[in-house]
Specification:
72% of the residues lie in helices and 12% in strands. It is mainly alpha-helical and 165 residues long. Strand 2 and strand 3 form a beta hairpin.
């Protein structure tokens, strides 16, 4: 029996050794699979991050181009805003002519309304002598406006001295 026991012990030890080798091989295989999954996940993450990085680089390049375009437009506007001396003189002359015409005719325009309604004229006519303000709101028609001015400034007996009536 002792022979059988030795033989059984040898078989048992060999079986345990084979089992241990198989367990180690299975553990190594599991570890390889886990590492392979992690590597695949990391590689896909790297691919995604690379795509995102490329997109961000493209957006940065686009924004840089836009910024350059905006800078060019701003510089262009700055140069156009610098009015030459001759233009300043023309502007001042036109301003003086406008103020003189405003005082002579008494016409005051509502420029905000006129800017919103390009085919309309709105404002009032001021007659200091009669202490009168006559408002108007009409289609743009210079003849009609001049008729209105003429009617307000109609002279009658106000030019006669008060005692000669």
């Amino acid at each position: 029996m002792s022979q059988n026991l030795k033989w059984l012990d040898n078989i048992k030890m060999e079986f345990e050794a084979v089992s241990q080798e198989l367990d180690e091989a299975i553990d190594r295989d599991k570890l390889k699979r886990e590492l392979s999954k992690k590597q695949t996940a990391l590689e896909s993450q790297i691919v995604q991050e690379s795509k995102l990085n490329e997109d961000l680089k493209n957006q940065l390049a686009d924004l840089t181009r836009r910024s350059d375009d905006v800078d060019k437009v701003c510089n262009l506007l700055k140069t156009r805003l610098n009015i030459a001396d001759s233009d300043k003189n023309k502007l001042e002359s036109a301003r003086e002519q406008f103020l003189l015409a405003k005082e002579l005719t008494g016409i005051r325009l509502d420029f905000e309304y006129c800017a919103k309604h390009p085919n309309k004229a709105k404002g009032y006519i001021k007659n200091q002598h009669k202490h009168l303000l006559e408002s108007f709101d009409m289609d743009i028609n210079s003849d009609a406006l001049w008729d209105l001015v003429a009617n307000i400034f109609v002279t009658g007996d106000e030019n006669w001295p008060p005692n000669n009536k």
